[in-house]
């Protein structure tokens, strides 16, 4: 099973990705983890990423796409994966489509965790992080809407997008995801 997980900040993507990977016996690919591993491995792209990160900049689409490509070439990925945190732009989504096709992967399925904005704000403010003021939380949600939501439109035209209501306990949400994957994904 080859999956992408989407949802706004505070939706629980990271938590659910790990649980889904464990329950389905597939690889969890967190963009941050993949990026850190490339830096540790000292690959050419990892060294480029390290330089960019150390300068305080965001890693460019081209470098990130290259790092994801290297990770997807790994034979362990052929057994299945859930990609968390990538793609974040339409350019990255289009590049991912090409990479998956080149590497012989079947069409990817998209899990979209849907949570009301009021609940997201409550969750993020409840985390107690210094950078989680209501203003910054609303700003991050707006960035998500502008940059990431169009990716769902992109995938709804070419892949199966499974919308999951992301309200309830972690276990309840995870069970909803596993149930819909079991019943709707071949």
Give the secondary structure arrangement, pairings included:
Layout: E1 2-6, H1 13-24, E2 27-30, H2 31-41, H3 44-54, H4 61-73, E3 81-84, H5 90-102, E4 109-114, H6 117-125, H7 134-158, E5 160-165, H8 170-184
Parallel strand pairs: 1-3, 1-4, 2-3, 4-5
Commentary on this structure:
The chain is an alpha/beta fold and 186 residues long. It has one domain (2-179): Rossmann fold (3-Layer(aba) Sandwich), CATH 3.40.50.300. It has 8 helices and 5 strands, in the order E-H-E-H-H-H-E-H-E-H-H-E-H. Helix 6 packs across helix 7 (134-158). The longest helix has 25 residues, at 134-158. The model has no long low-confidence stretch (mean pLDDT 90).
Give the gist of this structure:
Helices cover 59% and strands 13% of the residues.
Helix content: 55-70%
Number of strands: 5
Structural class category: alpha/beta
Tally of helical segments = 8
Estimate the strand proportion. 5-15%
Mean pLDDT: 90
Q: What multimeric state do the chains show?
A: single chain
Q: Termini, distance in Å?
A: 9 Å
- Uncertain runs with pLDDT below 50, 5 residues or more? none
Strand order of the largest sheet: 2-3-1-4-5
User: Major beta sheet, specifics?
Assistant: 5 strands, parallel
- Shape call: globular
Tell me the number of structural domains.
1
Order of helices and strands: EHEHHHEHEHHEH
Radius of gyration: 16 Å
CATH superfamily: P-loop containing nucleotide triphosphate hydrolases
């Amino acid at each position: 099973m080859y999956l992408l997980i989407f949802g706004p900040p505070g939706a629980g993507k990271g938590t659910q990705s790990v649980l889904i990977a464990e329950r389905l016996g597939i690889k969890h690919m967190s963009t941050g983890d993949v990026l850190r591993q490339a830096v540790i491995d000292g690959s050419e792209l990892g060294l480029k990423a390290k330089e960019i990160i150390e300068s305080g900049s965001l890693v460019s689409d081209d470098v990130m796409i290259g790092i994801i490509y290297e990770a997807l070439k790994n034979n362990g990925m052929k057994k299945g994966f859930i990609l968390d945190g990538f793609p974040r732009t339409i350019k990255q989504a289009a590049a991912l489509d090409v990479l998956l096709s080149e590497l012989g992967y079947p069409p990817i399925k998209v899990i979209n965790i849907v949570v009301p904005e009021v609940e997201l704000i409550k969750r993020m403010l409840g985390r107690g992080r210094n950078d989680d003021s209501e203003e910054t939380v609303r700003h991050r949600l707006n960035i998500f809407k502008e940059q990431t939501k169009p990716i769902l439109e992109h995938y709804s035209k070419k892949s199966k997008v499974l919308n999951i209501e992301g309200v309830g306990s972690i276990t309840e949400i995870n069970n909803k995801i596993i149930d819909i994957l079991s019943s709707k994904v071949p």
